[in-house]
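RECORD TYPE: inverse folding
INPUT: structure tokens
STRUCTURE:
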């Protein structure tokens, strides 16, 4: 859903950015965000003033994209959820698009600490799986069950394990600190690509009360030990050998990297914060 629309929008974004904002503006991210904020405002006005327009659904879809890139997470989730309900009400239901939109709603609602929205979407697919002759709904329901059961923002997870050094550790050992729980593996390209950023945040904030617990989903411990030694990874890493019934299962991990940021009280404050968002979240929690 998102990727298709983003691909179509990019050329227009480049043109509008170059013509609407001076080249000496703060940076590319700021320019782009200003563009999307302006686009979002115009689209909302258009939708409000032209509810019966022939292209109203396309305008709403574009507003979803604009809210995401304008860094308006709550509005983005609201618009995305509305889009899901609109798709669900169509006859016939566009199953593929409904599935993609529903999974996105669940992901972002859990990341924003709104499990009730995730549960309502999950319940919709429960009904569809029971009443519609479409195997896709059954498959989506299984994935959403795993997502909904995953520790979410606002919950207090438990974590215990043995590090590759043979040390027994638990999340409760880190009370009073901000902790990043990082499910990863040496064979995971995005995990390795993110590692320099993770190391930079650790080095900058470790002395201020930030720690990391890595949970490796490597298939064997040898490549994990080799990577830790070669890249001088200073934080503890648990080797989750029995992935079918231990930590990966406990946290309902369906893909990696999966990141949980836990505050000083042991409560999940953010999920899957990566790139610049990781440092922002850590800095904010340490200041509280």
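DESIGNED SEQUENCE:
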């Amino acid at each position: 859903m998102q990727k298709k629309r983003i691909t179509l929008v990019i050329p227009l974004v480049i043109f509008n950015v170059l013509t609407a904002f001076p080249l000496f503006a703060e940076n590319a991210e700021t320019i782009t965000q200003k563009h999307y904020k302006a686009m979002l405002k115009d689209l909302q006005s258009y939708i409000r003033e032209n509810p019966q327009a022939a292209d109203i659904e396309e305008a709403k879809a574009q507003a979803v994209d604009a809210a995401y890139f304008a860094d308006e997470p709550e509005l983005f989730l609201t618009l995305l959820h509305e889009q899901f309900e609109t798709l669900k009400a169509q006859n016939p239901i566009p199953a593929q698009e409904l599935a993609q939109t529903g999974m996105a709603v669940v992901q972002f609602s859990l990341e924003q600490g709104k499990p009730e929205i995730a549960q309502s979407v999950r319940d919709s697919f429960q009904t569809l799986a029971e009443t519609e002759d479409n195997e896709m709904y059954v498959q989506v329901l299984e994935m959403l069950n795993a997502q909904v059961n995953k520790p979410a923002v606002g919950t207090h997870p438990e974590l215990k394990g043995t590090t590759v050094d043979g040390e027994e550790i638990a999340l409760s050992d880190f009370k009073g600190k901000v902790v990043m729980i990082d499910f990863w593996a040496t064979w995971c390209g995005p995990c390795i690509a993110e590692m320099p950023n993770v190391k930079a945040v650790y080095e900058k904030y470790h002395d201020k009360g930030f720690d990391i617990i890595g949970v490796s989903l490597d298939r064997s411990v040898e490549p994990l030990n080799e990577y830790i030694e070669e890249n001088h990874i200073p934080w503890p890493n648990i080797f989750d050998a029995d992935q079918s019934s231990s930590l990966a299962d406990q946290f309902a991990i369906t893909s990696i990297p999966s990141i949980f940021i836990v505050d000083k009280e042991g409560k999940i404050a953010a999920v899957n914060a990566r790139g610049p968002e990781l440092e922002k979240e850590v800095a904010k929690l340490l200041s509280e």
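NOTES: Strands lie at 160-162, 168-170, 178-184, 210-216, 237-239, 258-262, 268-271.
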